[in-house]
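lol ok so funny story. i was supposed to be doing the assay writeup but got distracted and ended up predicting the structure for this chain instead. priorities right. anyway since i did it might as well share w the group, maybe its usefull for someone
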Amino acid sequence: MKKIFQAILFALFASSCFSQIPNSGFENWTNMGTYDNPNSWGTMNNTTASSAFFTVIKGTPGSPGTACIKLISKSDGNKRTIINGIAVSGILDTITQAPKSGFPFSLRPQSLTGKWQHMTYGVSPGFISALLTKWNTSFNRRDTIALANIPLGGMVMSWTVFSVNFNYQSSENPDSCIIVLSASGTSPTESDYLWVDNLAFSGTVTGINESPYPAFEFETFPNPAKNEIEFSTIKSFHNGDKLIITDLLGNEIFRKDVHESSFKINISNFANGTYICKLINSFGIQYASNKIIIQH
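and the output, tada:
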């Protein structure tokens, strides 16, 4: 009897976790006339519709179910720009192609699971990521609770189960979650694709494990600077990391995708003053900052 009760509790918990991801099986789509959008997921389709191409399409059949999501990186109508096949469980900023918001979520799952097929034709593979955050009322900011990220290594030509563990850096419960499905990395290639179905959370975590962004520090030299600044760190950057420079009012002055541990930028056209250098991840979450002074 005890084992039956435990099995019922486990089934209820698994069902609860599964239902926390909106449209997790991609069964629900809204017809927009010439294309379909997956309910509860942000895509680039509304933006690219004017050029009559779509980077997210409804695939049939699913695994399981009647539908899945297919993300394909494609060139625009002028064949000059490759638009990444990307979907976000919430709202997608169609200008930066970064997530703006997710969905309410308060559990501490051990991993994100699902099924996928994928192929990368260039040198910039895509990824699946899930970010758990909580609003910090004391500092008016959103703190990272945990991050799960799995790159699209190699090729998977038939439906295969994937599972990626969350790296927790806080013992608190989150209040929201963002899931990102991306067919390509920062340099998309035509026809990179990722098919996904049957997303779910599994297991629970009660403690803290290693953060994916541990004690990240970087140096700027010289400081004060005149015409050029060199950035350096001994840490490794992650796919989608960016350097952003703002003035003290928060106005963005400069933005750059970062990959190498040392690089230089020309600041000869910056006005004299004090600026803040920020490193943000692919979710737009800041994980390191530094102050620089420019004096020409």
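The chain is about 5% helix and 45% strand. Residues 270 and 294 are 8 Å apart (CA to CA).
back to the writeup now i swear
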